[in-house]
Amino acid sequence: MARTAPAADELLLGFTRALRAAGLAVTADRARAYADAVAVVGLDDRRATYWAGRATLCRGPDDFAPYDRVFCAWFEEAEPPLTERRQQPPQHVLQAPLDDDGGAGGGDGEDDALHAVASDVEVLRHRDVAQLDAAERARLARMFASLRPTTPTRTSYRRRPANRGSVDPHATLRRSLAQLGEPVEIRFRRRSTRPRRTVLLIDVSGSMSSYADALLRLGHRIVTAEPARTEVFTVGTRVTRLTEALRHRDPERALMAAGATVPDWSGGTRLGEALKVFLDRWGQRGMARGAVVVLMSDGWERGDAALLGEQMARLRRLAHKVVWANPHKGIAGYQPVQVGMAAALPHVDEFVAGHSMAAFEQLVRVIGDA
Questions:
Q1: d(Cα 273, Cα 239) in Å, to the nearest integer?
Q2: Cβ distance 202 to 294 under 8 Å?
Q3: Nearest 5 degrees, angle CA 238-CA 242-CA 244?
Q4: Same domain, 185 and 202
Q5: Where are the alpha helices (DSSP H) in 208-350?
Q6: Residue finishing a domain among 133, 166, 194
């Protein structure tokens, strides 16, 4: 179907989404690099657009064949601009004979297929994100839609009518006066609840690069569940506020916006300095006060571990609850012996894993129960 003058960003966003569906591990920073490269070479030059994608979106030779197929289909070219092409392996079609009894055994086959799919999903839920191949990462990205984050709440000073609780003398007296002083049923009231702010600090340093895409998708899911009460920052060599970028309803568009916003992908880790910047600029002024603050990091610290400990203590005094999600905690035998983790743990309320979909589901429950 011919497209009628689409915007460049819409066209490139759809192309990266199609590549993910085809099994390529297109992360937010790669998608941003591709968009920047196309802006330089020009979208009208199909050959340059093709090679820009080959250079930025493909991890190796195994990605070239699916990349060529998606490029041809998306940009409506007869064939990719390559001088030499590999011969594609023949596709084998699996067939099964029909039962002679009119398909009496079809129900069992369908049940077996459903059980197999359910089993695959369950296995994928517990797999370490860093060990997934491109196709599994694409399936995992779709599974984030099943997360149901709940907003943590706090007790308000305001009271509201209730069926039980403390006696509301004013409401009871007003009701009695309305009945000309006749005795009436007693009115009750109780304190109402208000949503509590959630703040996510996501480590995007080099040691966390294999988890960054999944953690940003988790952040996007939490932001879209409660946009007004959630803040997301990335930390590495600097602190970047990502809340506005992640408010896009479309996760792929949100990740592309995040890729354009974060300047320090896969850099170093100075958690102590980054946490101090966050607290000085945002946290002390009110963002961290009474909030549930979640740090998603492996705890590797290149800076001063003592500074990290001081800033964690400062954060703990401000926040309602401090949660640390470490992807390595889900590995059997892990001990938090890194200097960064050792300095931070005394000031952490909940230390949880952050390496799989099952761990993300547990993290969402911890946040909601805070």
A1: 9
A2: no
A3: 145
A4: no
A5: 209-225, 251-261, 271-278, 305-318, 339-344
A6: 194
Q: Is the dihedral of CA 275, 299, 326, 20 positive or negative?
A: positive
Taking CA atoms, 281 is separated from 167, 198, 288, in Å, by 44, 17, 11
**Interval 218-236: pLDDT, tens:** 999 999 998 889 999 999 8
DSSP 325-364: EEGGGGSTT----SHHHHHHGGG-SEEEE-SSHHHHHHHH
Residue 211 has pLDDT above 50, yes or no: yes
**Residue 194, by phi and psi: left (phi above 0), alpha (psi -120 to 50) or beta?**
beta
Task: Write out the residue range of the structural domain in which residue 263 sits.
Answer: 198-368
**Inside any domain, residue 117:** no
Average pLDDT of the chain, as a whole number: 83
d(CA 256, CA 40): 18
pLDDT at position 100 is 47
> Is residue 87 over pLDDT 70?
no
Single pTM value for the model: 0.71
**Given the structure tokens 């309602």, which residue do they identify?**
320
Whether residue 98 lies inside any domain: the answer is no
Give a yes or no: residue 146 inside a domain: no
Reported as a single tens digit per residue, the pLDDT across 306-357 is 999 999 999 999 999 999 999 999 888 888 888 889 999 999 999 999 999 9
Same structural domain, 248 and 335: yes
Q: Where are the beta strands (DSSP E) in 83-142?
A: none
CA-closest candidate to residue 210, choices 123, 265, 129, 268: 129
Strand segments, DSSP code E, in 124-197 are 153-162, 166-167, 188-195
**Tokens (6 digits) for 225:** 């569940």
Cα–Cα–Cα angle for 340, 152, 330, rounded to 5 degrees:
40
Q: For the chain, what is the domain count?
A: 3
